[in-house]
Amino acid sequence: MKLKVAIFSIAAVTASIASAQSSADSVRDQLAGMGYSNIEIARSGDTYTVEAYRSGQKRELTYNALTGEILNDRSYREPSDNRVARNNDESNDSSSNDESNDSSSNDEGDDD
């Protein structure tokens, strides 16, 4: 009997985790479909916190990971300094990848 209870408990926890993960994926997909980018999702206990950006707007959502209930949903204009810094960080990330590709191609001609 104890084994059945333990197996049921493990199955319930596993289903809860899978449901929460699919819930986070669903939220990410919905926001991306609405044109949001830089979607960040963090979990703390039974609560997910979501940050997403679209056209200078920052959206912050907090929802219950188990029930899906939205606890907080606010959207506001992001200060221009933050947008510029975030956009610069994104462009620096992509340009550093380009530089690493360029330097590897230059090494091939130095075999004199």
From TrEMBL:
<feature type="compositionally biased region" description="Acidic residues">
    <location>
        <begin position="99"/>
        <end position="112"/>
    </location>
</feature>
<protein>
    <recommendedName>
        <fullName>PepSY domain-containing protein</fullName>
    </recommendedName>
</protein>
<feature type="compositionally biased region" description="Basic and acidic residues">
    <location>
        <begin position="72"/>
        <end position="89"/>
    </location>
</feature>
<feature type="region of interest" description="Disordered">
    <location>
        <begin position="72"/>
        <end position="112"/>
    </location>
</feature>
